UniProtKB/TrEMBL annotation:
NCBIfam families: PRK12515.1, sigma70-ECF. The keyword rRNA-binding does not apply. Pfam families: Sigma70_r2, Sigma70_r4_2. Keywords: Sigma factor, Transcription, Transcription regulation. The lineage of its organism: Bacteria, Pseudomonadati, Pseudomonadota, Alphaproteobacteria, Hyphomicrobiales. It comes from Mesorhizobium vachelliae. It comes from the Bacteria. The keyword Oxidoreductase does not apply. This is Sigma-70 family RNA polymerase sigma factor.
Length: 188
């Protein structure tokens, strides 16, 4: 079996035996997805890069304990989510103060931006960003990372029924936001 067709699970087994090449292959396959996921969770590309790299250090450490109850990509996203949440909890004390916030220019309110007509995909992305964290996360994992309801439950550590409920309410809120903005729900 060559490296291109070797399964992620087989690569994790190789990592568990100390194979550094297997870590590199898993990194090449999954780094971009993990980076994008963490960037969306944290809002910081620099943090996303750091955490994505930490995920693969954790892979190296935890590979012997991987039981294969979920897909490797789901397992890695779960590690990434835990690390992102931990980092966000630590940073809560470092929020920007009001004086500094007043100095940050608000590019979204320029006359050019207000008068420009945005396409539906950009509007939808804005509405997703405005959702509560629990709803935004399930939408992000489902639609931007291609995770199934079961995989989302594993990543978030919640029951499938809870994922479905959050998905229902997130879709409802997105539909309402699109309608209020003058977009119909379907794609053109």
């Amino acid at each position: 079996m060559n490296a291109a067709t070797e399964t992620d699970r087989a690569l994790v087994n190789r990592v568990a035996k100390g194979d550094r090449a297997a870590v590199r292959l898993l990194f090449m396959r999954h780094h971009a997805r993990i980076y994008r996921f963490v960037a969306r969770q944290t809002g910081s590309e620099m943090t996303a890069d750091d955490i994505a790299n930490e995920v693969f250090l954790e892979l190296w450490k935890q590979a012997p304990a991987f039981e294969g109850r979920s897909e490797v990509s789901t397992w890695l996203l779960g590690i990434a989510r835990f690390k992102a949440l931990s980092m966000l909890r630590k940073k809560k004390e470092d929020w920007i103060d009001d004086d500094d916030a007043a100095q940050v220019p608000d590019g979204a309110d320029t006359p050019e931006v207000v008068t420009m007509k945005e396409d539906k995909a950009a509007a939808l992305r804005r509405f997703v960003d405005a959702l509560a964290e629990e709803h935004r996360t399930v939408i992000d994992l489902a639609y931007y990372h291609g995770q199934s309801v079961t995989e989302i439950g594993e990543v978030l550590g919640i029951p499938v029924a809870t994922v479905k409920t959050r998905m229902f309410y997130a879709r409802k809120k997105l539909g309402e936001a699109l309608k209020a903005a003058g977009y119909d729900r379907g794609w053109p």
